[in-house]
Amino acid sequence: MHIDIQLFAKASGAGRNGRDSRPKYLGIKKQDGEQVIAGNIIIRQRGTKFWPGQNVGMGRDYTLFALKDGVVKFTTKNNRKYVTIVNE
Predict the structure, then answer these.
(1) Domains in the chain, start-ordered, CATH in brackets?
(2) Percent of the chain having pLDDT more than 90?
(3) Which of 40, 45, 64, 88 gets the most CB atoms within 10 Å of its CB?
C-alpha cells in the first residue's frame, strides 16, 4: 500500500497581466480661435483625422503644426476636416 502525501502547494506561474504601453498624448493641442506662433503643434493624431489647410504643415507621424503666426480655424469641406491658420 502506497500513500502519496503532498506537503507543499505547487508554485503557480506568474500572472500574465501587468504590461502597459506608455501614453501617447494624442489629440487637439490648440483650439479654434486660439493664437499660435510658427512651429506650434496644433494636433497630434494617428492617420489623417484632420487635414492641413493654409499655413499648416503635416509631419511624418501626421502631426499638424503651424507654418506661420496667426489664429487656428477648423473647417469642413467634402467630408474632410481641415485646420488652417488665418492672420487676425
Answers:
(1) 27-86 (2.40.50.100)
(2) 80
(3) 64
